[in-house]
Amino acid sequence: MNVLPGDTSRSFQATRQVAEPTTGSAVRSEGPLGIYAVNLDRSPDRWATIQRHFGNLPWPLYRTPALDARRDPDAVLAERGQTIVLPPDGVGWNPYRYRIFGLVEEACLVGHTRAWRQFLASGHDRGLIMEDDAEPYGDFEEAVQALLSGGPAVDIVKLEGTPTARAASRLAIPIRPLGPKNMLVRSLRPRSGGAAYILTRHAAEHLLKAIGRLPMPVDDFLWSQGTHGLNIAHVSPWLIMQSGAVSTMVSGRAPNRHVKRRDPLHLFGQAAKRFGLRLSLWWNAMQGRPWTLLSARPARWLPEGYPRNETAAPAAKD
């Protein structure tokens, strides 16, 4: 279903009817790419903005209704069979960060799993999964066309990351150009972020199996190759950034940032796990060929003209 700009309320209601994740038989639409935007029912303004940015592209745009941790926490927990184990809203301990994995992070994650299932119920070859504050930058359409038409499909291609004032570029191994201004690369030191990425059908199926009930934010899960074993690449510079709108997650996640386990055994276990994930990430970047490090070059991340300030992407900052 193509979603075109028009009356916001009518488009919002119509898309909501077709966007529920399904596992049974469905009307299959063919095409190289479908775009899936995860959006809360209480944020029609964000959906209208997504329509404006992405509704006139050559690929169909779909809305994936998100679950609302504020209004229906039980539905959020039921999606993956989770429970609150660390009251008032801790679902578990994040195995990558030294902090609690909260209910709002669970809600964000299951929004993505719903989009993966929705994509698999379609006939599209690849799915572009986005959060509803995604904003295209640079030669977005041209670079995505080049990604779809050239070379073998990479399992996950990240189009976005969180900005930093300390480094405009990071070391990466180039794969191939995507038009005159962008490059497909394998990063040796990626930035976290899950606001926009393209994945194959194999990747979506595998991610759904790998995530299980793991209490890990989708941002970290996607780029941590050791958690799912899929091949990951990045577009340099990024084609999508978060708009800087006030996050729907900030108020719910902020208290958990300061509640941390400090017992030595847990700290040692997490340090070992982080080191293992980093090694797997480097091995993925090298594709098992250490000599490819000789071709590593600094890859620019921030799009030209992007405002480098601390108000951008508040939901994804560490």
Can you walk me through this structure?
Helices cover 33% and strands 22% of the residues. The protein has helices at 8-18, 44-54, 73-80, 103-120, 140-149, 201-211, 218-223, 225-228, 250-253, 264-286, and strands spanning 30-39, 61-65, 90-93, 100-102, 123-131, 134-136, 156-158, 169-178, 182-187, 196-200, 232-236, 240-242, 297-300. It is of the alpha+beta class. The chain has a single domain (28-249, 261-300), classed as Spore Coat Polysaccharide Biosynthesis Protein SpsA, Chain A, CATH 3.90.550. The strands form 3 sheets. It has a 9-stranded mixed beta sheet. Helix 4 packs antiparallel against helix 6. It is built from 10 helices and 13 strands.
Query: What name does CATH use for the topology?
Result: Spore Coat Polysaccharide Biosynthesis Protein SpsA, Chain A
- Silhouette: globular
Q: What is the count of β-strands?
A: 13
Mean pLDDT: 82
Number of helices: 10
Largest sheet, spatial ordering of strands: 2-1-5-10-7-11-9-8-13
CATH class: Alpha Beta
Q: How much of the residues is beta strand, in percent?
A: 15-25%
Give the low-pLDDT segments.
1-28, 309-318
- CA-atom Rg in angstroms: 19 Å
Total separate domains? 1
Structural class: alpha+beta
Largest sheet: 9 strands, mixed
- Please report the distance between the alpha carbons of the first and last residues: 36 Å
Instruction: Work out the helicity level.
Output: 25-40%
